[in-house]
User: What shape does this take?
Amino acid sequence: MTYPANPADRSPKGDHNRRLSLGLDTDDFAQAAGISVEDLHEYETTAPDHKFRTDVAERVGRALESLERSETGLVDNGPIPPSESAYDGLTEPEQPFGRAQPSICPVSLEPATLLASNAEYREYRCPTCGTFRISQVALTLAGDDPEVLREALSVARHVTSAGEVPFVSNVSG
Ligand SMILES: [Zn+2]
Assistant: This one.
């Protein structure tokens, strides 16, 4: 059972976006849907409020639903889940926000305290680096390169006023 039940109610533009978020090109998706690439292209480029082939729409809808069920969801909006952070294995399992726990400073790679961790950032207290926050995105982007984080932290310190916690929201490297 696909939604919407009536394929004539589908949104070609919306289906186009759903295909893109699955990371599939037209060739692969047309094959999965059992339609030709030309049919898929014609369907996806239907102008708003114009008619499209409902048999194509139905196959597209069915393929989208089955692919979306089987694919691991792509996180293309917002922060990367902590479990996919590049620092898995270095840090303890996630704790609810606000519970300090022993960890490793991602900048100086020494024992530090993880003061807080949520979907957006982690806050560390490190003997060398002091207290700072670092976004999950920055952690992921920096990969296993602490040098990148060290630079980003020193930049963050410069733009942080006294008494505030430096926040590394992004990295340039
Ligand atoms: Zn440190």
Remarks:
- The chain has two domains: 7-70, 82-168.
